[in-house]
Amino acid sequence: MIDIYRSAAGHRVLTERYRERLAQAPIPLERRRVSVPDGETFLLTAGSPQAPPLVLLHGSATNSAAWLPAMTMLASRFRVLAVDIIGEPGGSAPTRPPLGSGRYAAWLDAVLDRCAVGETAVLAVSLGGWIALDHAVRRPGRITRMALLSPSGIGRQRRGYLAPALLLSLGGGPGRRALSRYLLGPGLERTPGADRLVDDTATVARHFRPRMDPIPLFTDAQLAAITAELLVVVGARDVLLDSAQTARRLRACTRAEVQLVPDAGHLIPPRGDLVPNFLLREPD
């Protein structure tokens, strides 16, 4: 098994920080652990059990604390299940299957089964968006609607950020915070809790080993075959992903609603009611 943390002490630091963030949640959250084939999975639930389900999938090198600023709004409209992705710095198992293996789709299916969730909508970010798309490709029908922010797997991964990232990472704590701001991009200043987000991202960078293998790109045929309604929002100034290519490919081979935000990077700032209204819309 890959050691996803740089040290045991670093693992403890990130675990304690996660606990602190959850203790500051704006609404009551139920914490659950479910056993599935690729390892125990931790998730947070909130909202009325009678409300339509919404699965939240965070990005790489983070966890479900990323959803806390939006949790009050989302839980007022949905039965929210914020799932910690395996192999990331949250409460789930440190298992990290190959992305092209189909095991992430099987993992997500097993989590939904254990939570008695049938069809569901999904809101996902970055790597979480890739996992949602992969599931929709391999298991059509279960995800009915997806809102994806800066999803991986459509536009190519950029490599130009690596040199400045290396230089900034050599600058200790201030350098890691500057790197976090650089990677998150210009939408950061319009995001609530920006300073805390930068601090959290820098702390994770110090103690966690992120996935470095290339993320597989979906083919045009795979994207065209997706049956779920799809909203995709990407930032034109993303240094990690080619957002223009993401938008072009989606517009060419799907019926997705696509927004290319000119003054945003990898982090998409709040878009008002765009996402919840899309997720609650009646099927066409």
From TrEMBL:
It holds the Pfam family Abhydrolase_6. The lineage of its organism: Bacteria, Bacillati, Actinomycetota, Actinomycetes, Mycobacteriales. InterPro entries: AB_hydrolase_1, AB_hydrolase_fold, Carboxylesterase_BioH. Gene3D superfamilies: alpha/beta hydrolase. It comes from the Bacteria. Residues 54-268 form the AB hydrolase-1 domain. This is Pimeloyl-ACP methyl ester carboxylesterase. GO terms for molecular function: catalytic activity.
